[in-house]
Amino acid sequence: MGFSFRKSDRIRKRSEFSALDVEGRRVAVPWFLAVVAPSQSGRSRLGVTVSRRIGRSVQRNRIKRVVREFFRLNRQRLGGPWDVHVIARRGAAEQTNRMLFEALHELFEKIAGAA
User: Fold this and answer.
1) Domains, the chain, with CATH or none
2) pTM of the model
């Protein structure tokens, strides 16, 4: 599979986000909330939401980059094909990249453990 992150690895349509919101279960860690459901596409996919309340565009884009990079490197830890919608919570913008990676690691452990 490799470590690439293509368009096919993303949840992009509003209808897909809405369906995931209805079908999925929620998993939370200090700076992130995830909505997770089994993937219909046969591969794990990621959607990221960072609202304006989190911070300015530079901060929001940094959080999105960190989440995408973590997913790219660690998607095999999920233990199966999952659709994952990661939502940043308040306080995420003030954290270092290392702290965000640790929170995402904890999030993925919870997802894989509940599978």
Assistant:
1) 7-113 (3.30.230.10)
2) 0.90
